[in-house]
UniProtKB/TrEMBL annotation:
Catalytic activity, reaction form: D-fructose 6-phosphate + L-glutamine = D-glucosamine 6-phosphate + L-glutamate
Residue window of the full protein shown: 232 to 595 of 595
GO BP terms: fructose 6-phosphate metabolic process; protein N-linked glycosylation; UDP-N-acetylglucosamine metabolic process
Name by which UniProt lists this protein: Glutamine--fructose-6-phosphate aminotransferase [isomerizing]
Keyword terms: Aminotransferase, Glutamine amidotransferase, Repeat, Transferase
Keyword Transferase found: yes
Species: Kineococcus aurantiacus
Protein EC: 2.6.1.16
Gene Ontology MF term list: carbohydrate derivative binding; glutamine-fructose-6-phosphate transaminase (isomerizing) activity
Domain SIS intervals: 52-190, 222-354
Amino acid sequence: AVQRATTRLRWRPEQTGTGAHADRTAREIDEQADHAAELVRTWVPSVRSGRVWDQLALPVPERVRFLACGSSRHAAEVGARVLRRLAGTPCEVTVASEHDPADQVPGELTVAVSQSGETADVLRALDALPGPLLAVTNSPTSSLARRADAVFDLGVGPELGVAATKTFTAQVLAGVFLALSSAVARGRLPRSSTAELLDELSATPEALHRAGRLALHRADELAERLAPQPGFLFVARGAALPYAAEGALKLEELTYRWAQCHPAGEFKHGPLALVEPGTPVVVVEDGAAALDTIVHEVSARGADVLRVGWGEGCAFGVLDRPEPHAWGPLESIAALQHLARTLAARLGRDVDRPRNLAKSVTVV
Ligand code: F6R
């Protein structure tokens, strides 16, 4: 079973300000809100009735193992968290290159998340699976898709920048659709909560648009300020962590500057030693969930704190609400991607083709 969103590209440079001659990566960051809208339109009705798994011709899974690498792994972390929290489904996320068949559990569903569907580490991990395989991919004719029992086609069109941007967002949404559909099908959500969650989910494309516009407005000025910095720290908690990790990865691959991401509570166990006057610390907030302690700790040591979140004093005030969503602050990724891309351009990097990296990693 192959299920796809029918996507029309509707990138509007005049709305977003990245200009017709911007690099592909900038355009793909901008496009992602439109793709999110298409995905929401296509899938939310099936999520509401708990029938996403039916559409994929798979039973609602009792247990799930996500397999993925890089950005796709960060996206998988979001879906896994929602699946555990709202559907009560036991699941794990395995770095594909670290996959050990001895860890597999009989009957578990493997969900391989790979935009290219050609990542060798993912394909290699598919030998002797203990149950069915679902591919979440942007390439329904890929090796992964051909191997799978069912395919969730992201359908966001070719992604030409080496850095994953719009495919990351689409993968996050796919994982959330699968997780919420499980929760509905397993009777874990009262009807009123389902309606509320789906309203929130349906608002994410607009939130991504808004966050992208806001980020563009501030990115040049911040890139100027941050250009001399050799390294960056990213911090978050809970549902915001995968986005912070993805922001750090994007910054490293596009700017060639070091970027580490740690859970807030881990800072005092080591990374705090890295903070010196001027060190940029990007704080990815989840609604108004307090990260005051870490902000206080790093500020006291002279860090340049950049809050991505809600309320006063944010570098990017991308959240329009103090309450967190089950899937965390998805819209923050638009700001983190723009920050990385703008800083890379300011540093004269080849934004679409970062050194040493390939779009499909076909070697193990
Ligand atoms: C980062 C990036 C990589 C990929 C990773 C997996 O921007 O693009 O980390 O996410 O190589 O690729 P796919 O999703 O094709 O399996």
